[in-house]
Design brief:
The complex is a heterodimer of chains A (119) and B (280). The longest helix of chain A is centred in the N-terminal third of the chain and has 33 residues, at 3-35. Chain A is an all-alpha fold and 119 residues long. Helix content of chain A is 75%, strand content 0%. Chain A is elongated and about 55 Å long. In chain A, helix 1 (3-35) runs antiparallel to helix 3 and helix 3 runs antiparallel to helix 4. In chain A, 43% of the residues are buried. With 280 residues, chain B is mainly alpha-helical. In chain B, strands 1-2 form a two-stranded antiparallel sheet. In chain B, a hairpin with a 3-residue loop joins strand 1 and strand 2. In chain B, helix 3 (43-67) crosses helix 9. Chain B is globular, with a radius of gyration of 18 Å. In chain B, 60% of the residues are buried. Classes of the chains: A mainly alpha (119), B mainly alpha (280). The interface between A and B is large, with 51 and 55 residues.
């Protein structure tokens, strides 16, 4: 993989993450103006959960609740740097740069480890 | 929040994203005081939103910086090894270390660094050096395009062990105190490793998202990320960061330092004040 294509790939990962996240948050925000943050775009009853509780995100998405749609946007935003690091591992492998493959794997291991640490 | 407050938060977040993208820092210095002082939002939720804003600044700006060769990805990945391990240690230590004196120490370090930065205000590029065996082995050298200086301005990282240790310290401090990670990264790359200011800023921007992502889960788990606040913040910051990333390549290194210096002074004063028990 050439350095130019490596850069294009990492840049593309960041753009996709940022655009997807912004779109979800914007749709959630627009929805909140129509039915309220806790309402449902499918016309189901309002949820009682707080906007800072990410536990109900799956059920909320199924009911098209603006709060859950925007929360999904925040989750995509937070996942983007992690996916970027994972992509870099693959790109360093394709470049045959084993030193940086090891360094980047180390970063990814610490990142994923920190997610388990907090549970 | 009312729609008017949402619009206000959005506009301030655009400014935070713009400044963050240029200075290589997250937007926290603007976001937290604005949310608490102007909109009366609880400090806990303001900090939760600022963590989200750091990731938004980083990804929003880095998409362009990586493509435009402003970010040095090898320098970034190498130093992320130091910052992420430092950040995890800091998060673990935060349960046993009293932060008060740390805030004071960090504040003093940042204000001393501000003096050093001020003395360097006229400098466009660091003095040219030859590549050390370590820099060659780790490939911590490269070239970036500069609209004024030419399509390939070469640079080499020096004092790599010092830079690595400082980065681990930056991670430790941001894991412990939740602040200062961006400014310390710029200071380590510009001050210790003597990379060009624009490369330092763009590479710091690239890195802060990873450091913040490592701790964002903690804040969500605690219920500190309220999407009705963090949502408008993220949208505004993303927009501001994408604009900032288009401005940086056109600025001189001197002017980037001129943006960075006041940010450094404000963060230094905020940190010192917090250590002395004054909440700003």
């Amino acid at each position: 993989m050439t350095p130019g294509r490596f850069r294009a790939l990492v840049s593309a990962v960041l753009i996709v993450g940022v655009v997807a996240s912004a779109a979800l948050i914007a749709v959630g925000f627009a929805g909140s103006l129509m039915v309220g943050w806790q309402g449902s775009l499918l016309g189901r009853g309002a949820s009682a959960a707080s906007a800072s509780d990410f536990g109900g995100i799956v059920d909320g998405l199924a009911a098209l609740r603006p709060v859950a749609i925007a929360q999904a946007g925040i989750v995509v935003l937070i996942a983007t740097p992690v996916v970027r690091v994972a992509t870099s591992v693959a790109a360093f492998v394709l470049e045959g740069d084993w030193l940086y493959t090891a360094i980047t794997l180390g970063v990814l291991a610490i990142l994923l480890g920190s997610l388990f640490l907090i549970r | 929040m009312t729609l008017g407050a949402d619009v206000g938060v959005f506009v301030i977040s655009i400014a935070a994203g713009l400044i963050g993208a240029l200075a290589g820092v997250g937007g926290g210095i603007l976001i937290v005081p604005a949310l608490t002082l102007l909109f009366g939002i609880d400090i806990r939720l303001a900090i939760g939103a600022s963590i989200v804003s750091v990731i938004a600044t980083s990804s929003g700006a880095a998409a362009a910086y990586v493509r435009d060769r402003m970010t040095d990805m090898r320098v970034g990945m190498f130093l992320e090894l130091a910052t992420t391990s430092g950040a995890v240690c800091g998060a673990l230590l935060s349960a046993v270390v009293a932060p008060g004196v740390l805030y004071v120490l960090l504040g003093i370090v940042l204000l001393f660094s501000a003096v050093q930065q001020a003395l360097r205000l006229g400098e466009e590029l660091p003095p040219a050096t030859v590549s050390s065996p370590l820099a060659t082995r780790l490939r911590l050298r490269g070239a970036y395009p500069d609209s004024r200086l030419g399509p390939d301005v070469p640079y080499v990282a020096i004092r790599i062990p010092l830079g690595f240790v400082l980065m681990a310290g930056a991670g430790l401090v941001s894991g412990l105190l939740g602040i200062g990670s961006g400014v310390l990264k710029v200071l380590a790359m510009d001050g210790a490793m003597r990379l060009p200011m624009k490369v330092s800023s763009a590479t710091s921007n690239f890195m802060i998202g990873v450091t913040a992502a490592a701790s964002a889960g903690i804040y969500i788990g605690r219920g500190d990320v309220d999407v009705t606040i963090a949502g408008p913040v993220a949208l505004g910051v993303l927009a501001g960061a994408m604009v900032g990333a288009r401005i940086l390549p056109r600025l001189s290194n001197r002017n980037v330092r001129l943006v960075f210096l006041p940010v450094l002074v404000v963060i230094g004063l905020q940190t010192l004040a917090r250590g002395l028990g004054i909440n700003l």
